[in-house]
Design a protein that fits this description.
Layout: E1 16-21, E2 27-31, E3 35-40, E4 45-48, E5 60-65, E6 70-75, E7 78-83, E8 88-92
Antiparallel strand pairs: 1-2, 2-3, 3-4, 5-6, 6-7, 7-8
């Protein structure tokens, strides 16, 4: 963030669950009941990720880096992979069970 100072309240009335910073300085923020979005330090603007309409009104708990140009996320609707360069999402609806020996 510029000089370590936030000049605006990014999302008044909402709780930020987690944040992840990419190598270019972009912050992805997971927000209660708002999905997730990106804060771009150079523009000092927050942009909600609208490419994921089925997730955009639910809570996303956490995002982690996953392969090239992708983030893996977990939220109220399950887990998903988001390609931030192509702005596309792949959702996983089935539960994957661990096989125990």
């Amino acid at each position: 963030m510029p000089n370590g100072i936030i000049k605006q309240n990014i999302l008044p009335g909402h709780t930020i669950r987690s944040a992840i910073e990419l190598s270019d300085g972009t912050l992805y923020l997971c927000i209660d009941n708002q999905g997730f979005g990106r804060f771009i330090p150079t523009t000092e603007k927050f942009e909600k990720v609208a490419e994921v309409p089925e997730i955009s009104s639910f809570t996303v708990y956490q995002l982690i880096p996953y392969e090239k140009d992708c983030l893996a996320g977990i939220g109220q609707k399950g887990w998903f992979i988001y390609n931030y360069k192509k702005k596309r999402t792949r959702r996983f609806r089935k539960t994957i069970r661990c096989i125990q020996s």
